[in-house]
Amino acid sequence: MIEPNGAASPRLRIRNLQSPLAGPFSFDLAAGECLTISGASGAGKSLLLRMLCDLDPNTGEALLDGLPRSGMGAPAWRAGVVYQPAEAAWWLPTAGDHFKPAQMARVRELLPQLNLSPALLEADISRLSTGERQRMALVRSLACKPQVLLLDEPTAALDPVAVAATERLLQKELDAGLAIILVTHSEAQAQTLGHRSMTMCERRLTENGAAP
Ligand SMILES: Nc1ncnc2c1ncn2[C@@H]1O[C@H](COP(=O)(O)OP(=O)(O)OP(=O)(O)O)[C@@H](O)[C@H]1O
């Protein structure tokens, strides 16, 4: 969508988003941009991600490619803005059960990029290692083809090789236009993937490098 001044709308526009627990938050995120968020445990990072995907009640304005969230249903918003919590929930016996047939081509393309065997799709989910489940959760998020991906410490359970594979894939998705908000405690990861960084402190966000 085009703004009145002729510029393209940001992929995600957030204005005064708040709940009784956190905020207000205001920022824009462009297509292909990665905003990293760091901050102490309990600072409010997950609260923000849950508000952004409309899982927790909140007020304020949120627009996706210029279209207000208030004008679309929650399922439509969450199809565009996908949240991957630190520990993703699985509610069916196998990972493969969580995908629709139409997603399988994309899933089979993503698995080797994260060093995951297709056989893991058929295994009981409880048999997957923590790191395998974490990478499978990313496959699940990307198979939804979101416009904005909200990632809460997506590599926390991974070894260095798997971290590198995950970062390569995320970089590729960014290059293809995906916008990412990445909560990470890794300074190196923030520098590798991030275009901008913010710090969450006492449930408020500050842009790093911005004038006080
Ligand atoms: N529904 C709720 N009601 C009241 N307090 C809550 C609720 N959800 C979270 N909190 C509190 O809000 C604070 C921020 O929680 P949040 O999960 O956002 O932290 P975080 O920055 O993601 O931490 P971590 O890095 O440990 O995951 C915590 O003190 C938490 O206990």
Strand and helix layout:
Blueprint: E1 12-18, E2 25-29, E3 34-38, H1 45-52, E4 59-64, E5 67-68, H2 74-80, E6 81-84, H3 104-110, H4 130-143, E7 148-152, H5 160-175, E8 179-183, H6 187-193, E9 196-201, E10 204-207
Parallel strand pairs: 3-8, 3-9, 6-7, 7-8
Antiparallel strand pairs: 1-2, 1-4, 4-5, 9-10
The chain binds adenosine-5'-triphosphate (ATP).
Adenosine-5'-triphosphate binds at residues 21, 39, 41-47, 200.
GO molecular function, one term: ATP binding
Keywords: ATP-binding, Cell membrane, Membrane, Nucleotide-binding
Organism: Duganella violaceipulchra
Structural description of this entry:
The chain has helices at 45-52, 74-80, 104-110, 130-143, 160-175, 187-193; strands spanning 12-18, 25-29, 34-38, 59-64, 67-68, 81-84, 148-152, 179-183, 196-201, 204-207. The protein has 212 residues and is an alpha/beta fold. Helix 3 packs across helix 4. The protein is globular and about 50 Å long. The longest helix is centred in the last third of the chain and has 16 residues, at 160-175. It has a single domain (34-54, 80-207), classed as Rossmann fold (3-Layer(aba) Sandwich). It is built from six helices and ten strands, in the order βββαββαβααβαβαββ. The structure holds adenosine-5'-triphosphate (ATP). Residues 21, 39, 41-47, 200 line the site of adenosine-5'-triphosphate. The site of adenosine-5'-triphosphate has 10 residues, from helix 1. Keywords: ATP-binding, Cell membrane, Membrane, Nucleotide-binding. Residues 7-211 form the ABC transporter domain.
